[in-house]
Amino acid sequence: MATILVTGASRGIGLELACQHAEAGDSVIATCRDPDTANALNHLSQSFDNVEVEALDVVDPLTILSLASLISKRGDKVDILYSNAGMAVAEAFGEWTADAFSATLETNVVGCAMILQGFAKVMAQGGKIVNVSSKMGSFEFMGNLAGELTSYAVSKSALNMLVRQSAPSLKSQGVLSVALSPGWVKTDMGGQEADLTVTESVEAIRKTVSELSLEDAGKFIDYTGEEIPW
């Protein structure tokens, strides 16, 4: 039985990751900012004895250190960490705000950096860190396209560099880290026009992650395992 840690597990892809791993019999540590209001997640934990819900805010380093310390004191090791928590703000050029850029970068980049660093010491040998990115972070795909999610695209490009920068250190510890795009998914963020259901995306992600090895460290891939140009 593997130990799975999911950030941003109260809804969407994070919730489905927790659900599918719970159904597979894995031990799931599902985190979100406010467990008291995470009704679907709490229902999942009531339905499965192998799911625990913990408070974690990726922009609050103390909550990261607190959970990492709890896991360490129990003597547990994390086999797969899904760094999934993220945010997006729609603003067209000419309407950009410093607040939206700052909040997006703090959550999607700084928060992910603190997650990588904070949980590295509790990862199992051969453990895998899956940083949920987006194809929108690819210069080749999105570099010449205007849109309303510029701060989000910028943050995912920065996240990809973060993965590249940290992958060698993690690999030396026997831990794999990748940036993974889940595809365009029917979530609150992706909208109902998206290509994939949450179930389809997560099923593919789990299969892809199961096949990753240390040789894949630092790669930018999609949910099927195909590499995405930077």
Give a description of the structure.
The chain is of the alpha/beta class. It has a single domain (3-222), classed as Rossmann fold (3-Layer(aba) Sandwich). The protein has seven helices and seven strands, in the order E-H-E-H-E-H-E-H-E-H-H-E-H-E. It has helices at 12-23, 39-47, 61-74, 98-119, 139-142, 150-172, 198-210; strands at 3-6, 27-32, 51-55, 78-83, 123-132, 176-181, 220-222. It has a seven-stranded parallel sheet, sandwiched between helices. Strand 6, helix 7 and strand 7 (220-222) form a beta-alpha-beta unit. The chain is globular, with a radius of gyration of 17 Å. The model has no long low-confidence stretch (mean pLDDT 95).
Q: How many separate domains?
A: 1
Class from helix and strand fractions = alpha/beta
Mean model confidence by pLDDT: 95
CATH fold type: Rossmann fold
Strand percentage: 15-25%
Write the layout of secondary structure elements.
Layout: E1 3-6, H1 12-23, E2 27-32, H2 39-47, E3 51-55, H3 61-74, E4 78-83, H4 98-119, E5 123-132, H5 139-142, H6 150-172, E6 176-181, H7 198-210, E7 220-222
Parallel strand pairs: 1-2, 1-4, 2-3, 4-5, 5-6, 6-7
